[in-house]
Amino acid sequence: MSDKNLNKNGERESSNSQVQEPPFGGQGGFVSRFVPVNIENIDTDQIIPARFLKATTREGFGKNLFRDWRYYNDDESKTRADFPLNMSQFDGEILVAGKNFGCGSSREHAAWAILDYGFRVVVSSFFADIFRNNALNNGVLPVQVSDEFLQRIFLQDNNTELTVDLEQQTIRINSTGEQEHFDINSYKKTCLLNGYDDIDFLLSNKAAIETFEKQRV
Amino acid sequence: MTDHIHTASADSPLRGAGGATLFEKIWEKHVVKTIDDGPSVLYIDKHFIHEVTSPQAFTGLNKRGIKVFRPQQVVATADHNVPTLNQHLPIKEELSRLQVEALIKNCAEHGIELYGLGHPFQGIVHVIGPELGITQPGMTIVCGDSHTSTHGAFGSIAFGIGTSEVEMVFASQCLLQSKPKLMRINVDGVLNKGVVSKDIVLYILSKISASGATGYAVEFAGSAIRSLSMEARMTICNMSIEMGARCGMIAPDETTFAYIKGRKFAPQGAEWDKKVAEWKQLFSDADAQFDEEVFINAAAIEPMITYGTNPGMGIGVSETIPTTETINDTDRSGLAKSLAYMGLEQGAAIKGQKIDYVFIGSCTNSRIEDLRMVASFVKGKKKADGVEVWIVPGSKQVEAQAIQEGIDKIFEEAGFQLRQPGCSACLGMNEDKIPAGKYCISTSNRNFEGRQGAGARTLLASPLTAAAAAVTGVVTDPRSLPNPSAGGALDS
Ligand code: SF4
Question: Is B210 within 8 Å of chain A by CB?
Fold first, then answer.
């Protein structure tokens, strides 16, 4: 990410996740370049360190995404030139990361930080359970691909675009045409395509829940 | 007996018709309805909350203009952000204070019981639930915290959730959940002296890796597990999330019932008998089917310690740090980065590594049994020069008990600092942080980069191994030190 894309808070200018419509419903899929973070077992403490969890709102976490990998000694004037988020050649709304992404703490702040920074899709060959749910609950799509396909993506140059088609459940490397199917349960898919909300769904089931409570005592 | 992993393929005899697992028995009783090709609406019996992962969920409720649906099934405490010294004073750090104040306000508005700072029941959420008898067999339990898996030690389905899910449970006392695959980890045989439950779970992690149980609910079984106390079982289930598991659980038995009986919120009288009769049905049937089974030989386990930056990167304390050639596939690509962060060398011995801080605490190892174990081991010994030792009890009740038993005096004589309850140095969020570059041997559960403070280097170990390092100033096999107290930790 070059400086031109970052505002003074270290967030991307384009990051206004709170007002965006779900982007996955359109024709032709979601097309974007990607930012590769080729590291395995990225835990949520790296995605957003604990010291930034003191907020009581969901906004503003993007500037601290991967904080301790982006800066030396927690100093924003000392960026690590070798970390992909700091490299001007990489850009896009798709984060591509190594196996077992999002392990560790259940902090949803990790998903909030990823969204707030401006990513809408995370691609990895393996996701930790809680992170996967947290991402889905915030309109960030986790796309799980095979190890081989992940490595193919990492081999592409920085101008390559990926196409994520939620309707078809496919991800394609546009320059080579290589494509893979990904899994998502149909309930979550419907929610993401339409911007539905789990809480509305649960609230609409109140009567069934109350009946269940009465029956079990 | 050697360790081995048996994976059931789709058509293997492990799958197919058969009895029910412990997990399935509890799950089936909590399904309100199932969505076709989707998750189930799962009813939640108990919901624990704390200050860090709840404020945005309350805000969400307020935006919708609704109240918590079943506030009497929610229990709150403040643990992550609280100082562990001078808790009677206002919290100095402004953002921490605001978060704790938000919890107080939200709980008051929604009629939720809060065991906040100053309350005799305050403590780490996963310590207070069991010790108050709130955690019981057969329940579904959630909390916006990954170590909710701890409560599975009582034979419950207990798992961590995100804040959106906290809001769902607030709104409906239910969650949308897909049924996970099932794994059983069998630990059989007799543990060696000086080897405790933390070593068992670090050993399992070193075998199956930090992602080895992702997507699974894990049941821990076998003679070595059965022989453990409730507190030791909690240590194991606590770290099931470190294997990626959705939850960890152990079938309840007489040890479980004896632990719960008489606690503050335990059933009483005729209700107790009725409950125990129900709880006795909670076990995996002999012909129950698991998707995967792992077999561990308890006698092969020695005191464990981690050298890397995920909890699966552990070795026996007498072993050497793996090299690119000897390490398992899972951690090979991360080894160099991990060791660079840790300032350690491939192939080097871990024993003798200098330590700057010792942290004995966290929801993994801060219960009274842990403190007793450490006290019995260090009695008559002194901490090494240049080592800072923090003992942080998991709750006000643990703290009170430690003082009542005179354990505080033993720590004082050893030069250990007994602090006040909270998450403390388990995560670099409150005031208790390990400085950059310093080595901390810690009884907590995560050795991630920066977990205990930016740049901090964490070595995970049992309370005994941590205590041994406190005494010598270097990583030490606790079995190599004399244990003066008869019937002490090394003999248990
Ligand atoms: S002690 Fe550590 S792991 Fe446990 S709840 Fe607190 S921060 Fe989380």
Answer: yes
